Amino acid sequence: MKIVIINYGAGNIKSIQFAFKRLGFEALLTNNPEEIKAADKVIFPGVGEASSAMQKLKESGLNRLIPQLKQPVLGICLGMQLMCKSTEEGNTKGLGIFDVDVKRFSNTVKVPQMGWNTINNLQSDLFKGVKDDEFMYLVHSYYAEQCKDAIATTTYDVAYASALQKDNFYGVQFHPEKSSLAGEQILRNFINL
Amino acid sequence: MLTKRIIPCLDIKNGRTVKGVNFVNLRDAGDPVELAKQYAVKGADELVFLDISATLEGRKTMIEMVLKVAEQVNIPFTVGGGISSVEDVDLLLKSGADKISVNSSAVKRPELVNELSSKFGSQCVVVAIDAKQVNGQWKVHLAGGSIPTELDLFDWAKEVETRGAGEILFTSMNNDGTKNGFANQALAKLSETVNIPIIASGGAGTIQHFTDTFKEGKADAALAASVFHFGEIEIKNLKEELKQKGVSVRL
């Protein structure tokens, strides 16, 4: 099993690598297109600001590579958001893998949403063994709207898509690597896809 | 529904926990990694590590500790204490910290908050504020509360929000160490002043104090040290009681 974590200079990716290590898997940090193409599983992380993250993807040509990947790809947090059509953050055009736009929470709630919230309407093998209303750790100011690609829903300000899937592409808004045992189960499920 | 967070805080000096810890089943009560793992199992929602080392050597040990915690603990954690530059933060985040907190360094040079939030994102920038109520005015204090400033707590909170802070950790010097409850009036006013999450700190003594700070103080999270370390309050019991009182928690 060859797992790679795309390293394009966005945020804390050590935690994801450590989470796989706890599950008994070595994950390689890389931005090398050949390594990424040859992997069995690809993690597309992201913490930080959308437009500068997108800029970094363009500089390395990863914006063209990622949508062409054939193996299971898991976008986490900003990674998931960048796989959508567009995001209001920095008015950024995304990779367009998921047919949905990313919007900012309204100021009727505290922004960012920070902490543990539930996921429900779970509809994917990614959530095998994970019960409805399980808690996940989230930190974000922008969210993907409800859409046909949604495979999990979370409610904060509005009910939104907290996980997405299209073909071999998966995205989660929450941080499975920081979400205790249930989060580890989701990572294990991803490895087993 | 987003739940209220319970956050144990560990003081670290030269890589070891400082305040005594009274846990059964703990092989080494001075080992922050052991302790962090225990807290994760007991249901803590996050952890805060506060580095109180004064030496360069102590700082290096802190980085090693952060790496070990990130490797072994599956809940988020914040690292604070002595952070004053983009480089400091870069190293901590690369070592696996989820968030960092700045305090005195932000007061001395407020642009630091802008620099950190634009480089690393607001989500990982916690601004810790120590304040004391003097003649009815909440004034920001530095260096662990020992040096008063002219800064008003609420003005400063608003300013750091504008500069890109993702969260505020407010410690009331009037309440800290008293075990008489959190500074709920000031906390509630903070929540009305800014639109970012607030962590309440200082004064936890009983389970009721936590209920009060979530309900009256409108806090998004509550931080405490000794009541958890000495087993005076068990996190699981605390959360069960909070739930009974209608406070939403992760159980």
Automatic annotation (TrEMBL), chain A:
Q: Which GO terms describe its molecular function?
A: lyase activity
The entry's keywords = Amino-acid biosynthesis, Cytoplasm, Glutamine amidotransferase, Histidine biosynthesis, Hydrolase, Lyase
- Which positions, given as ranges, span the membrane? none
- Reaction(s) the record says it catalyses: 5-[(5-phospho-1-deoxy-D-ribulos-1-ylimino)methylamino]-1-(5-phospho-beta-D-ribosyl)imidazole-4-carboxamide + L-glutamine = D-erythro-1-(imidazol-4-yl)glycerol 3-phosphate + 5-amino-1-(5-phospho-beta-D-ribosyl)imidazole-4-carboxamide + L-glutamate + H(+); L-glutamine + H2O = L-glutamate + NH4(+)
A Pfam family annotated for this UniProt entry: GATase
Residues at the active site: 77 (nucleophile), 175, 177
- Tell me the ranges covered by the Glutamine amidotransferase domain, including all copies: 4-191
Lipid metabolism listed as a keyword: no
Repeat found in the keyword field: no
Pathway membership:
Amino-acid biosynthesis; L-histidine biosynthesis; L-histidine from 5-phospho-alpha-D-ribose 1-diphosphate: step 5/9
Q: What is the superkingdom listed in this entry's lineage?
A: Bacteria
* Listed InterPro entries: Class_I_gatase-like (IPR029062), GATASE (IPR017926), Imidazole-glycPsynth_HisH (IPR010139)
Provide the protein's localization: Cytoplasm
What EC number(s) does the entry state? 4.3.2.10, 3.5.1.2
CDD domains the UniProt entry points to:
GATase1_IGP_Synthase
Q: Give the quaternary structure.
A: Heterodimer of HisH and HisF.
Q: What is this protein for, i.e. what is its function?
A: IGPS catalyzes the conversion of PRFAR and glutamine to IGP, AICAR and glutamate. The HisH subunit catalyzes the hydrolysis of glutamine to glutamate and ammonia as part of the synthesis of IGP and AICAR. The resulting ammonia molecule is channeled to the active site of HisF.
Q: What is this protein called?
A: Imidazole glycerol phosphate synthase subunit HisH
From TrEMBL, chain B:
Q: Does the keyword Cell inner membrane apply?
A: no
Show the active-site residues: 11, 130
UniProt KW Amino-acid biosynthesis keyword: yes
Gene3D superfamilies per UniProt = Aldolase class I
Which key words tag this protein in UniProt? Amino-acid biosynthesis, Cytoplasm, Histidine biosynthesis, Lyase
Molecular function, one GO term: lyase activity
Query: Its function?
Result: IGPS catalyzes the conversion of PRFAR and glutamine to IGP, AICAR and glutamate. The HisF subunit catalyzes the cyclization activity that produces IGP and AICAR from PRFAR using the ammonia provided by the HisH subunit.
Q: What is this protein called?
A: Imidazole glycerol phosphate synthase subunit HisF
- Name of the gene this protein is made from: hisF
